Amino acid sequence: MKNNKHQFIQYILLVLIFCPIIALGQSYSEYDHNGITRQYILYKPVNLPQNAPLVFVLHGYTGNAVHARNAYGMNAVADANGFAVCYPQGTKDNNENTHWNARLKISTTDDIGFLSELAGHLQTEHSLNHDHTFVCGMSNGGFMSYTLACEASDVFSAIASVTGTMSGYTWNNCNPAKPIPILEIHGVDDETVPIDGSLVSYGGWGGAPHLDKVVEFWAEKNACTISDSVFLPESTHAYYYRGGINNNEVWYHKIDGWGHSWPGRNSTTGTNASELIWKFFKTVVDKPSSISDSTSRNSNTVSVYPNPTSSIINIITDAQTRSEYTLLNLLGQPVLKGTTDQGGSQLNIYQQPVGIYLLLVDGMVYRIVKTN
Q: Distance between CA 132 and CA 48 in Å, rounded?
């Protein structure tokens, strides 16, 4: 771990010596997690307002935070759009390679805990938005982003993967607490993380299917009802799934003739990854602040999850009194009615048929998807 920290400091010194202008607006910091000192770079545009969004950018396997900051161009997008960027540094795996432990077999590092806790720390320390904190990453960073979507959707509001996919464990065990928007950018000719799902299972990397199927999985998780596609010259086939729970969207940019690389401003692919990632995250920023499909608002905060669900619906409210609820089928017929306990209750809809329902709680309306 000392060698990893020493290497990170060397990178910082080189940047400060040779690129002093780039270092403006940035801080090189440490955060202790589980007895391990972790490093990260935080970039804040000049005059960044309070409650601004926060975007995590995760480097690839064997990579580092400084390279991610220099290579991906996210700082310029942050300057133009007003959000903070965090570039965390991965630790060494069993083979002494920097990595993110996306439920892999090559490490015991708790990166889910580290990144989740670091997000909370930065939100508090720098007055950043708890509801607009996002994560994206290249390759292994994309793997980690998917793992966070499955296991930390209460922390991160959307994720984007560039040349990544889901690890075998994550694919087989993904059960997010609530639906989360997903963006995947991938080259058809990627030989490092093949788009067809043929990545070897060694180390826990492989196990997920073709990325077409991965994207379909997330579109279904979000209960998207609208899909369309467009060709972006010169080589991007873009697919958009919309109309999901809480108006969530799933985007997929599949690039012909492109390999294992971050498409930038000069890639001529039709995709500029950093600009596209922010455009995608902004669909979340521009939504109403409630996590629901509510058609009306009141002064109480109500959380309804998981959704979709096969059985239990949790209703959590900060109201000081009991709340009345009604579950309607699509014919408008009540199938469940009652009153929550103070603070919330659980509803069991296991016996209800598969389909879409409307849950009314204190004048708010939520669309609920009942699965098998």
A: 15
Question: Which residue's entry shows tokens 């065990």?
Answer: 173
> Which residue has better confidence, 187 or 320?
187
- Domains of the chain (ranges; CATH) run 2-285 (3.40.50.1820), 302-370 (2.60.40.10)
Amino acid at 2: K
Give pTM, 2 decimals. Answer: 0.75
What does the chain come to in residues?
372
Please check the confidence at residue 289 and state whether its pLDDT lies above 60.
no
β-pair partners for 328: 334, 358
Give burial (CB, 10 Å; 0-12/13-18/19+) of 159: buried
pLDDT in tens, 167-208: 999 999 999 988 999 999 999 999 999 999 999 999 999 999
Structure tokens given for 4: 């990893």
By the 8 A CB rule, do 261 and 193 touch?
Answer: no
Geometric angle at alpha carbon 306, from 204 and 320, rounded to 5°: 140
